[in-house]
Amino acid sequence: MADHADKTCLLILPRTFYSFARMFGNALRELGYDVTEANEEYPENPVGKVIAKLDLEVARRITRRVVNERFLTGKRYDLVVIIKGRGVGRQLVADLKAHADRVVGYHFDALAYDRATERWAEGIDRVSTFDSRDAKDKGWPLVELFSAQAPPAEVEPIRIGFSAIMRNHSNRLAYLDAVVRALDIRPEDSFFYIFEQDIRSLAWNFLKQPRLYRRWRKHIHRTPLPYEDYRRVLATSDFTIDYAHDKQTGLTMRSFEALASGAKLITNNPNIARSPHFDEEHRVVFEPGDDPATLALEVAALKGKRPTIKWRSVTDCLLEIIGEREPPQAV
Predict the structure, then answer these.
(1) Which residue, 25, 96, 144, 158, shows the most beta carbons closer than 10 Å to its own?
(2) Residues 36-93: pLDDT tens digits?
(3) How far apart are CA 159 and CA 87, in angstroms?
(4) Which of 259, 274, 43 lies closest to 136 in space, CA to CA?
(5) What would be the CATH architecture of the domain defined by 160-302?
(6) CB burial class (10 A; 0-12, 13-18, 19+) of residue 73?
(7) Neighbouring residues of 251: CB distance < 8 A, sequence distance ≥ 6
């Protein structure tokens, strides 16, 4: 960590989204910033989440008032970083510009799911996205995500042939089932952990696919896998199975965590083939409707081979977000 912070930064982001606040905050401190942290929407409670998710103007008015009162009045910053910014509006961006030398933003979701960034992007100095389709459509820099974990000190031996650790949403369970059937994966050669966000998602997912849900019920849980168990499973897996949101074209954090762990990825996202961070040794693309026989051949060609480990850190991502480093070009 920097011995002395001679620059100031206001970091606006969803503070409860995994450990993003801690990770981005620490990365900024490593770059020499004294970091002040604000939530992306106010009030910072379930009501605030609901009105912001519904994209109501009242959410932007409240957020603007709170941010001005708590973080802007009588203060000035060298840098403001807005991550996603669901409660941010054009007027707040104007306020931020009046209190900062530079304002940048980053969207780690697709505009097809959350269009908030598009609303305020025009008013800031630089905006980037993790989603390749949005980057192309909007002319924004494509800044891919990162791995929250550093590579292991020593590459661990393969103990698990195939793993999948995922929250149940969209068509993830159906995709996992298709991969398992295509490869004839056996229980003794696999580790599968699917968790439900809450009781409502559990009920909805069951009603949507009851037969499939019953078939996978032994692998479905109400809580996420503890982080150390997740890290261990990924580090000892030959392949891990990942499914991107249906409307997203960006690569998931799981993709980069597999890259840093030495696990190969089976994914539905064809854009991984264009990422400069992944080579053919790192991934197999299997989209819904693809030939299962081709998947089996591609997996067999890579089976048991540890690919080159690469680590893209949160600092790598942050440097591209703030424009101190240009992101590598897609291939």
Answers:
(1) 144
(2) 999 999 999 999 999 999 999 999 999 999 999 999 999 999 999 999 999 999 999 9
(3) 45
(4) 274
(5) 3-Layer(aba) Sandwich (3.40)
(6) exposed
(7) 130, 144, 145, 244, 269, 271, 272, 275
Map tokens 């249906």 to a residue. Answer: 246
Number of neighbouring beta carbons within 10 Å of residue 190? 18
Q: Taking CA 325 as the corner, what is the angle to CA 320 and CA 326, rounded to the nearest 5 degrees?
A: 75
Report in angstroms the alpha-carbon separations of 89 from 94, 103, 111: 9, 14, 15
Residue 232: both structure tokens together:
């261990």
Helix, strand counts (H, E) of the chain: 13, 11
Give the whole-angstrom CA distance, residue 26 versus residue 254. Answer: 21
Residue 45 contacts residue 16 (beta carbons within 8 Å)? no
- Each domain of the chain, given as residue ranges in start order, spans 7-146+314-322, 160-302
- The CATH number of 7-146+314-322 is 3.40.50.11010
pLDDT tens digits for 257-307? 999 999 999 999 999 999 999 999 999 999 999 999 999 999 999 999 999
